[in-house]
Amino acid sequence: MTDSPLGGAAASRRLTLTIGILTLNEEDNIEACLRSASFADQVVVVDSGSVDRTTAIACSLGAQVFRYEDWQGFALQRNRLLAHAKGDYVFFLDADETISPAFREELEAIVQSGEEAIWMVRWRMVAFGKELKYLRSTAKVERLFWRGLLREYTGVVHEEAQLSRANVTRHLMRTPLLHHSRSTVHTSLEKLTQYAMLGAAKRAEEGVRGGILRGLASSIAMFVRLYFFHFGILCGGAGFLYCVFVALESFFRYVALAYDRPYLSGDVRR
User: Which UniProt keywords apply (predicted)?
Assistant: First the structure.
């Protein structure tokens, strides 16, 4: 084991990892996700009321599955997951993500380092059956936590981690996480509404104004940035479709802010 800030008996024992996954009707993705996470000491699935085979598949693969159908937002679901987490570290994995061997190796090394910190991840996108190898992703999200740092999550739509102390060290993991963002055009069209409304609800919380012109400007800028400046143009037809769908989500997000604002709430599920 590498040098650890932990003292006494804690420093001499093997540190453990919990991987936590929130689900709702993810039967097409959950098996690959869970198989990639099977090395963890504990795998916890918190389900929001799936009506497909999501929970059956998760149980068959050895995950600890807990169903909470009284949907009150992502923050509460994450807090419920944390209540079941027993590991020294907790890593949040989405059902449409998979852990590569290289990512697993880096993750296990971090866990055994014993560092009390937070780690962010970047994605490598997989869309329409093709890995978008040349698409440059700049998004960074906090996914790995020393368990003792996480007090709770707050926020109905845009959940935010509340920490037990200030001035926490943050790192960026070197290996990207595989994100199976869009498998087919059919499912992408189905999720277009979900993603657009989730983004609209988040911006409504923040007091952002919407409208058709703003939506057009945002969607055009998004497509140009992804397709040309982030090299989606080098990823063939799959890259083009990915950029189009992301741009459409941006357009309808701002249109919904203007036309559906009275109906926006936290009851929008990933």
Answer: Membrane, Transmembrane, Transmembrane helix
Residue by residue, pLDDT tens for the chain (270 residues) are: 334 455 444 556 899 999 999 999 999 999 999 999 999 999 999 999 999 999 999 999 999 999 999 988 889 999 999 999 999 999 999 999 999 999 999 999 999 999 999 999 999 999 999 999 999 988 899 999 999 999 999 976 668 999 999 999 999 999 999 999 888 999 899 889 988 998 898 888 888 999 999 999 999 999 999 999 999 999 999 999 999 999 999 999 999 999 998 777 655 555
Q: How far apart are CA 111 and CA 175, in angstroms?
A: 15
**Two tokens at 7?**
């003292």
Which residues contact residue 32 at a Cβ distance below 8 angstroms, ignoring those fewer than 6 apart?
98, 180
CA 224 to chain centroid: 24
Query: How wide is the angle at C-alpha 62 spanned by C-alphas 49 and 14, nearest 5°?
Result: 120
Task: Look up residue 230 and give its DSSP letter.
Answer: S
Question: Rounded to an integer, what distance in angstroms lies between the CA atom of residue 195 and that of residue 99?
Answer: 23
65 φ, ψ (degrees, to nearest 5): -110, 130
Residue 145 dihedral angles phi and psi, to the nearest 5°: -130, 140
Which among 98, 79, 263 is positioned nearest to 159, based on CA atoms? Answer: 79
Radius of gyration of the chain (CA): 19
Alpha helices by DSSP H, listed for 206-235, are 212-224
Q: Classify 255 as helix, strand or coil.
A: helix
Write the single-letter amino acid at 138.
T
Do you know the residue count of the chain?
270
Residue whose structure tokens are 């699935």: 45
| pTM given for the model | 0.87
